[in-house]
Amino acid sequence: MRLLSSRRRHPAAKALLLVFGLFMMGALYSVIAPPAQVSADTGNSQQIAEGKALFAVGCASCHGLNGEGQTSGVIQGPPLAGVGAAAVDFQVSTGRMPMAKPGEQAPVKPNRYSEEEIAALGAYVASLGPGPAIPEPAEYEPANLSAEDLARGGELFRTNCSACHNFEGAGGALPNGKYAPPLIGLDHKRIYLAMLTGPQQMPVFSDEVLTPEDKRAIIGYLDSLHEQPASGGFALGGLGPVSEGLWAWIIGLGSLIFFAMWIAAKGVKAK
Amino acid sequence: MAEPAATVNDEAAVQAQTPKKELGPVFKVAAGPTKWLDDRIGVAGLGRPFLRKVFPDHWSFLLGEIALYSFIVLILSGIFLTIWFKPSMSEIEYEGSYELLRGLQMSEAFASTLNISFDIRGGLLLRQMHHWAAALFIAAMLTHSLRIFFTGAFRKPREINWLIGVAMLTLGLVEGFAGYSLPDDLLSGTGLRFVDGLIRAIPVIGTWAEFFAFAGEFPGELIIPRLYMLHILLLPALLLGLIAAHLALVVYHKHTQYPGPGRVKGNVVGYPVFPVYAAKAGGFFLIVFGVLTLMGATMQINPVWVFGPYNPAEITAGSQPDWYMGFVEGGIRIMPNWEWHIGSTTWSWNVAIPGLGLMGLFFGLMAIYPFVEAWVTGDKSEHHILDRPRNNPTRTAFGVAAMTGYAMLWIGGGNDLVATQFHVSLNAVTYFLRVAVFVAPVIAFLVTKRICIGLQRADRDRMLHGAESGIIDRAPSGKYAERHRPISEGEAFKLTQHEDLPALLPATDTDGFSVKEIKREQRRRKATRFYFIDTLRRPTRAEIEEAAHHHMHAMHLTGDGEHHAIEAEVEEEHHLAK
Amino acid sequence: MSEDTSHGQPGSEVALVDEERYPVPDPGLEEHLPRLTDVDQKAADRATRQVATFFGLVPILSIGFVVVYFAVPGDAWVDFGPLRANSRNLLLGLTFGLALLFLGIGAVHWARKLMDDREMIDYRHSAASSDDDKNYMLTELDKVVDESKITRRKIIGRTLLAALATILLPMIVGLADLGPWPTKKKRAETIERTIWAPGVRVVQDVTFKPIKPEDIEIGQLINAEPANLQELHGSEFQIEKAKAAVIVVRMDPNTITIPPSREGWQIGGILCYSKICTHVGCPISLWEQQTHHLLCPCHQSTFDLGDAGKVVFGPAARPLPQLPITTDAEGYIVAQRDFLVPVGPSFFERDSRHDSP
Questions:
Q1: Which chains touch B (3 or more CB pairs under 8 A)?
Q2: Over chain B, what is the mean pLDDT?
Q3: Between C155 and B240, the higher pLDDT residue
Q4: Rounded CA gap, C342 and C258, in Å?
Q5: What are the structural domains, with CATH classification, of chain C?
Q6: Which residues touch B417 (CB under 8 Å, ≥6 apart)?
Q7: Are residues A120 and A194 part of one domain?
Q8: Which of A44, A153, B120, B486 is deepest in the core (most CB within 10 A)?
């Protein structure tokens, strides 16, 4: 202590103090800040235990204490052996799970689990039976895609996806009140996870058939499609001829009828 | 007294010689060429009947003009598009400027549409103007025909014009379908696939009609060029001919007019073609053109590059045709799956009934209505004064019922969008509409009829008791009453200008009728009772005078200008005549 | 007579006002009231200036159009609030559109404010022709028929009728090559068959990658095509694709019903169905992996793939045809043969008795 205080007026003291301060902030930050990628490592038994505890609180009432599922009664939930950590990531990070109430379809709502909690849940569920793992960014981030790659992604999208999600990813109707949600403004990981895990009624598109490269092309296509401005003006919802017809009547015929009323109006008289 | 309105007649005929008045500069320049033309084709004689022809002015008379002007815009923009469009289904690899389709196989038709949209300056604008104009053309024709229907303008002598109109509406629908199928994109190609299945499912002749239309199996390589021929040659030629006939008849019959003071069956009151009507009509043409251009500039329509080229293994959720085919689409969607398998034949009623039957029903009912009404009323006189819709409640109610049925089918055509936008079950919407398409029109009929009769009562009230003045009087006895003031002569005339059409009792006197004829006549009379028994009859001159007298008298006596009891009148309001 | 009969005359039959039929007598045309611009010179001048301004803006906008046409590049975008659009399209349309609109508005404003707005009366004539015309036509037509001598030589009329009726025949028959005739043989070659054949591999659509059963998970859907589709091009490619497109789905065998006759058509819960709807032919990919229902987006026909493709909702009347599949020597999925029934929409001559197992 005496050493430090006796040198407190040294010319280098200020500079050293500054460097020390910066170092401390950096170290503190790297300890506190959440990691960019959390892995649901099934080998990490502590993570699994954590996950099991979270599961018991938030998921077991529908999916059973050991994820065995409940297929009868009012409150039902499918068995989770084999769905993999990827499915957990998708369902929980989008807020679909835990469902607020039983229903035909789990809607998106705000998610109340942190990334670590999701990873822990994922590790636990993955331990119930092998399933797709949470993908790495290299798998789901489209990079260096040429115009031809994007065009191929478009063909894949229109062959596999637009039947439910519409040509622009604006969503579509399924039987009995269910729906395929819109794909606009979603992050790449989420889209990738959905294709990989086939949530709820959505079919599965396994990596062996629709390769990660194919999936990236689809994601890249969607990105480009949604980034590009609507060449022709206001896009009117991306719902096709129904909305176009509506606007033709409302704005087209409507404005012209107003003009017609103006043209034929008798107008104010002077007397 | 104001100066009398100008009349058009021969007495003030202009001198055949060159007028003595000093001509303006425009006239001076035009004089030479005009004389040249006149020497050869007699333009003065041709123009004479038209120069000061009178057209009545009302905004609802401009609806047909919207249709006409959109058609002109369609022709002008269409010509532009034909300069670059390639109506060929040959496959090429796309190498144009729209990146997201680079390298894909597509037809020349689709590729040339992309070319127009991205590489021809103004191309996208013209494409969008053309498509908006098509949607507006049919919307305007439909609205115009509704105006004609509700005001009874289809009555003698205009039945032929009505039929020409129905024909134009039909052709317009087909023309629009052919047009939006030309780019061979995923959405319109799917529609074409639907039409292929529809044609094929027609009992007995289906496969023949399909193979003849598509030159073999779907899609083949000739359907787009054939639709192109239909779209730019055959249908526009037919439409132009019908438009010419339609307008010629309007000129010949002169335009109808709404009831009002000074307007009687034998005249037509309005503005002359030159200068007022020409300025208004010409201006309106430019306004329609301008609105369509602004729509083409700011509202994206039919973005085929997002749909992608047609691929028979691809489809989009929310596949709908353009709005005017929506009612057929709805019919096809809500139809139960009736099909007969008789021996080795298949009779596809699930497709044939809504596919062919609906259009036949819709246009058929439209076409025969004037003749049905003419038979019911037995009215053989000419009609040039329009009906106010309330004065023919049954006709108005039929019209609204038809609109309601059409609307149910329209909703059916978009049932999946209804499901997603309003968060309801798709299946529930379909089941609901299967019932609603029959029940809703009946409800609409009943409600509309009562509303019309209510409005007739309000008119009668105004006639007999005057208009409500908003001034409340309080009598010494403590009673409150609203003071009424008599309506103007002009309004009184307008309210009573329509004709009473009687509900006839069954014929008791069979003189002059054969057995078959008397049956027909009894049926007709029953129909008149259905049509007119609830309709209010106009107050007679005696009733009006008595009411006016009573008012003056009542005002003298009690100072509280009051209504007499209405109940006694109710019995007399409706009428049965022999 | 050379009278101008294009306008009716007061006193003609149609022009009579029937006093008895109108309980209130016609008060005649209302008094013409002047507009502000008729009495107030300043208002009239203002209206004139307004019309001139509207007209005056048109040349500016028209020239603006020309400037935009040459100066604005095709890849410029305007980003203004909710509007993100191509600048050139927007500006070309705004300049031209406003030019047209202002020209029109100016003309209408001129008519409404400044042009003489007194209404005129014209008289109607009856739609029917005059008795004079009718008599003339009748007598002359009589003479026309006489002069043609057709009444005396009746055979001319009869043979003429026959000739006119039949002259249309070549024109109608000339259309007979509009398309090939769908005779029984032709149908068997076209709409009643597809390019599926024994041993043809089932490959993924777009990538044409062959598929192994172990690559497919329960709940998976694959949009697939026959491998031999790649050999075709152009119109032939499209025609065959429109019939041969299939979907491969994998379901848990415990949750589905497989009819005994179709036990051999599947590979452990992996089934292959035609993708083409039996209603009017749209391709169907909308599959609910839990309910096993396949929904066609065109008209909402719904098929249960876990129950031999039976129709459970909607206007389709026949179940979805199933393609029998197996694996080849290398373990890839192949078709056993072509479909047993014609795929796609119904037609009159179709024998639909064998669609259900």
A1: A, C
A2: 90
A3: B240
A4: 21
A5: 13-24+32-113 (no CATH), 194-354 (2.102.10.10)
A6: A173, A239, A242, B318, B320
A7: no
A8: A153
> Is residue A161 situated within a structural domain?
yes
Question: Which of C101, C124, C187 has its CB closest to that of B291?
Answer: C101
Within 8 A of A232 by CB-CB distance, chain C residues are: 85-86, 89
Q: Is residue A263 part of a domain?
A: no
CA B239 to the chain's CA centroid: 16
Structure tokens at C201: 């591999």
The pLDDT-based confidence of B541 (bands split at 50, 70, 90) is: confident
Query: Which secondary-structure segment (H or E) carries C154?
Result: helix C154-173
How confident is the model at residue C3, as a pLDDT?
Answer: 37
Cis peptide before B219, with omega less than 30 degrees from 0?
yes
Interchain CB distance below 8 Å, C117 and B271:
yes
Q: How many domains does chain A have?
A: 2
Structural domain spans, chain B: 27-54, 57-314, 388-578
pLDDT in tens, B498-517: 888 888 888 777 667 788 88
In a domain? residue A180? yes
Residue C310's pLDDT band (boundaries 50, 70, 90)? very high
Task: Tell whether B315 lies on the interface with C, counting CB pairs under 8 A.
Answer: yes
Mean pLDDT of B396-420: 95
- Per-residue model confidence as pLDDT tens digits over B4-15: 556 665 444 444
Which A-chain residues 63-92 have CB contacts (< 8 A) with chain C? Answer: 78
- How many CB atoms are located within 10 Å of the residue B115 CB? 19
* Range B188-204 average pLDDT: 95
**Model confidence, pTM:** 0.90
Nearest to C104 among B4, B285, B297 (CB): B285
Quick one: pLDDT at residue A224?
A: 94
Substitution target in C122, C208, C241, C350 with the highest count of B β-carbons within 10 Å is: C122
Residue type, position B503, single letter: A
Determine, for residues B9 and C7 on separate chains, whether the beta-carbon distance falls below 8 Å: yes
* A145/chain B closest Cα distance in angstroms: 11
Angle, vertex CA A133, rays to CA A128 and CA A139, nearest 5: 175
- What topology does CATH give the domain B57-314? Cytochrome Bc1 Complex; Chain C (1.20.810)
| Residue in B100, B118, B420 closest to A221 by CB | B100
Omega before A98 within 30 of 0, i.e. cis = yes
Beta bridge partners of C303: C294, C311
B439 touches chain C (CB under 8 A): no
Instruction: Quick: pLDDT tens for C198-254.
Output: 999 999 999 999 999 999 999 999 999 999 999 999 999 999 999 999 999 999 999
The reply to whether A203 and A147 lie within a common domain is: yes
Structural domain harbouring A60 = 45-128
